[in-house]
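User: Predict structure, ligand benzoyl coenzyme A.
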Amino acid sequence: MNVATSIGKVDYDGLIPNNVGLGEDVRVKRALEKWHPGYIDWWKDMGPEGFQESLVYLRTAVSVDPKGWAKFDYVKMPDYKWGILLAPQAEGRTIPFGAHAGEPAWQEVPGEYRAMLRRLIVIQGDTEPASVEQQRHLGKTAPSLYDLRNLFQVNVEEGRHLWAMVYLLQKYFGTDGREEAEALLQRRSGDPDSPRMLGAFNEKTPDWLSFFMFTYFTDRDGKMQLEALAQSGFDPLSRTCRFMLTEEAHHMFVGETGVTRVIQRTCEAMKEAGITDPFDIARVRKLGVIDLPTIQKKANLHFSLTLDLFGNEISTNAANAFHAGLKGRYRENRLTDDHKLETSTYPVLRLIDGKIQNEDAPALSALNMRLRDDYVNDANVGVGRWNKVIESFGIPFQIKLPHVAFNRNIGEFSKVKADVDGKQMSEAEWASHRSDFLPNEQDKDFIESLMQPQYEAGKFASWIAPPKVGIDNKPGEFEYVKIA
Ligand code: BYC
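Assistant: Predicted complex:
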């Protein structure tokens, strides 16, 4: 079947909505239908706790047309239509980088790179259910129905992204693909015996400020990695990731605007109470809002945890994946070099003779570093917007991203302790200053004390401002979740 002609047409009637011609692909259809009950069991066990019967005003992807790909309606989450949607196939697409640059993009798995490709898909797939597991308790403390709905929207779409990766495994990787698809439902975030694959996905998301920071910082790693995989010479992966990026944008919007609204409310409350010193933490907290230094500490934590997701600065895996044409750079198609990188270099921040300094490394080995640099630039943009809000209240405080050497567990800087400015510290200094940089027990207890649910339509918890506009242009008092 010519896939290009079927694009845009989504088969929306079956169990699994799709635009990949699943109706005619009996083997894959059966495999996915077999996987489906296990997925639903996982969703019920590990998905949002306590709201499975509630009606949620969700968007569902019903097309891949950039102009109108989603519809909004009330849905019970277990009935959400988790479809398989790939961006349209680009006619005559070639492999954009690496040793095979210029050859036709692969429509089937290239045998020599099978294991590497499977590993990339499995790692990507593993993060999706992990984040749902991390966020499963948050519904109980939602600051509004608007936020509750956004949480669930993010959750169902992470579920769909798991489907996207499982489709690739089932369609292109035979028996071992099926086994990997099963294993994706078995691992659990934070489980000591069977944890999720990457560090940050085994951390807790204990409160809503963490949720907003996670969707701002960690979903942005998702964006960068998906952008890099969207460049892949393996065309089905590229097309899957391109459509996933459409949904991912909303997740980062939830994070960025969530933090903005927390900051906004804090600044408003400080102004009303006539507090000008952002470090007058005890007085600010009495107002029932989160002080700016604690918001900074949360940003420090989630930013540093997320940097670990880029792997080692110098990585043979990354070099091999690029050389093979499987994983490119951020927006590879907009770069103007030779796309092979065999002779070029890239400056990498390293620990040399105990000092943090730049060193030129072969560009191929430095691809994780390069993607991380692109990430830091991207993450800084929204931080600038947060600071504009603080500035508009005349409060002398700026949120700053910590140095990349701060609080690291993977890569070059995992061997040292450094403060938020990158100044190295002894273990003892770190131990005594840790709670200046990262949330301590009192900070956690305070934030937890604010986490009281607000389920009345149009109302918001004390510590967060309402959004500027509603979802799907709904008015302020709209009942985004009908709690059952
Ligand atoms: N934790 O050569 P290296 C998202 C392992 S987020 C634990 O530097 P590489 C989302 C590494 O596996 C995006 N282990 O690794 C966001 C390797 O082990 P093996 C997810 C780690 O391959 C929010 C060894 O250390 N997608 O979508 O260059 C909500 C040597 O490391 C970690 C992807 O990540 C870690 N943090 O880089 C929902 C894309 N880091 O194989 C969703 C696919 C490294 O030697 N993955 N290790 O035993 C990749 O591209 C790469 O695997 C990584 C690692 C960038 C993750």
